[in-house]
Specification:
With 393 residues, the protein is α/β, with parallel strands linked by helices. It has helices at 15-25, 42-52, 62-74, 85-92, 110-118, 128-144, 154-162, 201-205, 214-222, 224-237, 275-283, 297-300, 314-325, 329-345, 353-364, 373-392; strands at 5-10, 31-38, 56-59, 80-83, 99-102, 122-125, 148-151, 176-183, 244-248, 254-260, 265-269. Helix 2 (42-52) runs parallel beside helix 3 and helix 14 runs parallel beside helix 16 (373-392). Bound molecules: nicotinamide-adenine-dinucleotide (NAD) and magnesium ion.
């Protein structure tokens, strides 16, 4: 083991952030938290500051930051409180930070995650939206600035583990014929189609295998999450759409597989607990305890697999379509999805209207070439405005 790893955790109050701190707390000799960040939950961030004593705590929201400052002062903690998007970029690129856990949800994660890439950090990437929106720009920044990218998404972490250690972005040269991305199918895998119109946010967020934030839970229910993950896999592993195949596997025990030309298929298995991929990435290339129970195969007993149902889950088809269209299409898909999911959670949009809205927004906006980050941000903004307009019609 080589010294202490100094960490910034973006989105520390979320599901991935909390799991990350759980693993970090098990290894005080290995990890030190330099910065914690959250959107606006001052109380939660304060509790985390008490436990981890970071040098910086960042809240996006100014009023929440003022509240946190008071609590920090009263507790006599040596933590500086900052606020705003620039502060998120600042703590992502501090010279003394070795690794950044990118666990903000949605497009809001793009700028700070990109800042970590431009500062050449080791990036533990949970924020898949960064790659969906700005895959080319982000991967170029990683390459140019010598950053290291380790996937946290359980599927991509599994693929990373099943690919050769020397994998350099050429599937054919490594003898890989296909990447098999497993999907649980979410809570509505078997729900009669006629009942899907009425499902509530609570039902959509009740995932059978994973406890996650509300946005990704809805994405899992529509299977847009798997669609975003197809695009994520494309950028992470330089894999064309045709080489990425989704397999529905309801138990979520096999986290994904790599199929080789000789007929071998390598898989990574484990209980569905995000602390496994988090611990893997935190200590890479070493292995550390994550607090996860050993997999009991006799208890699991059965593993099932089926092909995905593109009629039930049109979001999956829309994501493949956006990936193949390229340019700004994935950014438009992502933005329309974020607006649709927020409206569904707000009970302003029916579940089945989510894919319809995304399809309409994709059809309304022409695909443009992406040369700069501004091209991505402009597409994101246009897609959000169009989606909002359609919702309010
Ligand atoms: P979450 O909603 O539980 O947490 C999100 C975190 O981001 C919180 O700390 C919140 O304060 C912060 N945040 C939200 N909006 C922000 C903004 N505008 N600016 C700054 N900070 C903001 O989400 P999560 O489930 O932990 O997911 C985080 C990311 O990880 C997502 O991109 C998700 O797709 C990915 N991911 C999550 C899981 C999982 O099991 N939860 C698995 C794989 C990938
Ligand atoms: Mg996943």
């Amino acid at each position: 083991m080589s010294g202490i790893t100094h960490l910034t955790i973006l989105g520390s109050t979320g599901s991935i952030g909390i799991s990350t701190l759980d693993v970090v707390a098990r290894h005080p000799d290995r990890f030190r938290v330099l910065a914690l960040t959250a959107h606006s939950k001052a109380d939660n961030l304060f509790e985390q500051c008490l436990s981890f004593k970071p040098r910086y705590a960042v809240l996006l929201d100014e009023a929440a930051a003022a509240q946190l400052s008071q609590k920090i002062a009263a507790a006599r903690l040596d933590t500086e409180v900052l606020c705003g998007i620039e502060a998120l970029e600042f703590v992502s690129s501090l010279p003394e930070v070795d690794a950044v856990m990118a666990a903000i949800v949605g497009a809001a994660g793009l700028r700070p995650t990109l800042a970590a890439a431009r500062a050449g950090k080791k990036i533990l990437l949970a924020n898949k939206e960064t790659l969906v929106m700005a895959g080319r720009i982000f991967m170029d920044a990683v390459g140019l600035h010598g950053a290291t990218l380790l996937p946290i998404d359980s599927e991509h972490n599994a693929i990373f583990q099943a690919l050769p250690h020397s994998y350099s972005g050429d599937l054919a040269a490594s003898g890989v014929s296909k990447i098999l991305l497993t999907a649980s199918g979410g809570p509505f895998r078997n729900t009669p189609l006629t009942e899907l119109q009425q499902v509530t946010p609570e039902q959509a967020c009740a995932h059978p295998n994973w406890v996650m934030g509300r946005k990704i839970s809805v994405d899992s229910a529509t299977m847009m999450n798997k669609g975003l993950e197809v695009i994520e896999a494309h950028w992470l592993f330089n894999a064309p759409a045709d080489a990425i195949q989704v397999v529905v596997h309801p138990q979520s025990v096999i986290h994904s597989l790599v199929q080789y030309v000789d007929g071998s298929v390598l898989a990574q298995l484990g209980n569905p607990d995000m602390r496994t991929p988090i611990a893997y990435a935190l200590a890479y290339p070493e292995r550390i305890a994550a607090g996860v129970d050993a997999l009991d195969l006799a208890k699991v007993a059965t593993l099932n697999f089926t092909a995905p149902d593109f009629v039930r889950f049109p979001c999956l088809a829309l994501a493949y379509q956006a990936l193949r269209a390229g340019g700004t299409a994935p950014a438009v898909l992502n933005a329309a999805n974020e607006v649709a999911v927020a409206a569904f959670l707000d009970k302003k949009l029916a579940f089945l209207a989510i894919p319809r809205l995304i399809e309409d927004v994709l059809a309304a906006l022409p695909v443009a070439i992406v040369n700069t980050l501004d091209d991505v941000l402009a597409a994101d903004e246009a897609a959000r405005a169009t989606a909002q307009e359609y919702i309010s019609q």
